[in-house]
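Write out this protein's structure.
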Amino acid sequence: ASDVYKRQAGVLDLLLELRQRESATLVLVTHDAAIASRAGREIRLEAGRVAGDSSGSTVARSPAPSGEAAT
């Protein structure tokens, strides 16, 4: 299993290097907190809605599905 994690880390290293070199935006979607922690900004979703933003920036909240009250 550790070989898998090493390969995953290597791929992520390459993506982050490419992002920096090209001054590009990289969007990662993951359930792995260790991977998310390597991102410059983390936007957490819960039940399909924005639940937090590590940058402190205001993120547009998704409207509540019809029949539900917005929170």
